[in-house]
Amino acid sequence: MSFRTLWFEDGALHLLDQRQLPARAEIVIVRSGRETAQAIRDMVVRGAPAIGCAAAYGLALATTSGEDFAQARSTLLDSRPTAVNLRWAVERLSAVQPRTFETLKAEADRLLAEDLAACKAIGRHGAALVPDGRGILTHCNAGGLATAGYGTALGVVRAALEAGKKCAVFADETRPWLQGARLTAWELLQDGIPVTILPDGAAASLLGSGKVGCVVVGADRIARNGDTANKIGTYPLALAAQAASVPFFVAAPTSTIDLRAQSGGDIPIEERPPAEVTHLAGSRVAADGVQVFNPAFDVTPARYISAIVTERGVARAPYERSVPALAAG
Ligand code: MRU
Q1: Is residue 220 flagged as an active site residue?
Q2: Which of 174, 136, 172 is nearest to 155 (CA)?
Q3: Does ligand 1 lie within 6 Å of residue 83's CB atom?
Q4: I need a surface site. Which of 150, 160, 262, 278 has the fewest CB within 10 A?
Q5: What pLDDT score does 102 carry?
Q6: In whole angstroms, what is the distance from residue 208 CA to residue 319 CA?
Q7: Is the pLDDT of residue 305 over 90?
Q8: Residue 311, SS3?
Q9: How far is the centre of ligand 1, averaged over its atoms, from the C-alpha of 99 (Å)?
Q10: Which of 46, 267, 270 to mutate to test the pocket of ligand 1 (most atoms within 8 A of CB)?
Q11: Distance, CA of 220 to CA of 128 (rounded, Å)
């Protein structure tokens, strides 16, 4: 990959500022748990696995910035509610003993390396499912920008292309934050992979056209029964894929599985500020005084998911059995 999403250097966490892409590739440097939490909340860094990796470094930084560890831990946990990788990473780092900068930084490094390896394995498992010679449709950004590198859904895309499959890549623009138009398109083009973006509302027409052989999306939290929270707009995409008889795949590391959530109803859904909907690039486009519903995620019921691809292999229905089995390792 021709860019880095997050890395630790000179005693600080460096984040590629995803709010500025594709116009500018700027780096934000954070030096404490509090600053890391702020960067996660403000979406400097986003995407479930990348948020987890950033939080891990944030906890390591908390040991050098004079912060109270428990306070830093709870500020990080509160920064974004839906991606369970955040809680997973914070719990993993909290268990490290003795609790020094060196031990926590080493664990954060391991977590980052494991996430990259998981994405490569997800890519290998997922590439086998991708039909050759047909399009792949994705939503949001589940790429290198959302992970330690390579990506989950985009890892499947990359691995399918690396395996020689001929697949046109389609990306929903992903209103309102435009992760598809701004981030997925940028990251694929950086790597020389052609991509066509489309308005979210055009996905059903594209699926009905026969050009798409499968949909591949990432996940923010997968419940025990396979219900999957991902970027808002994923659920209607799954419905449209089912109507068009196109397989719908979820690609995610096992760190995204939350066995404490029995079903999608147990997954907290973040609501984002109204301005993300009422404004475009800082200019107001909606009438003054209008009310806004802006959930950042939706839950796709497991019955619409053809398979869940993890680094440990592929889960299929009945997910009540296959998801806990994969999570157990
Ligand atoms: O609000 P975001 O941009 O953090 O949402 C990201 C997504 O919904 C991704 O699809 C998900 O985190 C998987 S990233 C590999």
Answers
A1: yes
A2: 136
A3: yes
A4: 262
A5: 98
A6: 27
A7: yes
A8: coil
A9: 30
A10: 46
A11: 23
- Using alpha carbons, select from 149, 144, 156, 139 the residue that is nearest to residue 314: 156
Whether 221 lines ligand 1, by a CB cut-off of 6 Å, is no
Instruction: Give CA–CA dist 190/22, Å, rounded.
Output: 10
Q: Decide whether any atom of ligand 1 lies within 6 Å of the 139 Cβ.
A: no
Tell me the C-alpha distance between 182 and 195, whole Å.
12
**Same-fold call for 6-119 versus 126-328:** no
CATH number of 6-119: 1.20.120.420
pTM over 0.90: yes
Instruction: Report the C-alpha gap between 323 and 326 in whole angstroms.
Output: 5
Which tens digits make up the pLDDT trace of 182-212? 999 999 999 999 999 999 999 999 999 999 9
**DSSP-based helix, strand, coil % in the chain, nearest 5:** 40, 20, 40
Is the predicted pLDDT of residue 1 greater than 80, yes or no?
no
pLDDT of residue 245: 98
Q: Is 35 in the pocket of ligand 1 (CB under 6 A)?
A: no
* Cβ–Cβ < 8 Å for 113, 147: no
Specify whether the CB–CB gap between 191 and 159 falls below 8 A: no
From the candidates 115, 172, 220, 227, give the one annotated as an active-site residue.
Answer: 220
Q: Indicate the class that CATH gives domain 126-328.
A: alpha beta
CA dihedral of residues 187, 314, 116, 218 (deg, nearest 10): 40
β-pair partners for 216: 249
pLDDT digits (tens, 9 = 90+) for 151-184: 999 999 999 999 999 999 999 999 999 999 999 9
For residues 255 and 177, what is the distance between their CA atoms, to the nearest angstrom? 24
Question: What is the token pair recorded at 9?
Answer: 């250097």
Contacts of 202 (CB under 8 A, 6+ apart): none
* Ligand 1 atom at shortest distance from the alpha carbon of 231: 8
Domains of the chain, by residue range, sit at 6-119, 126-328
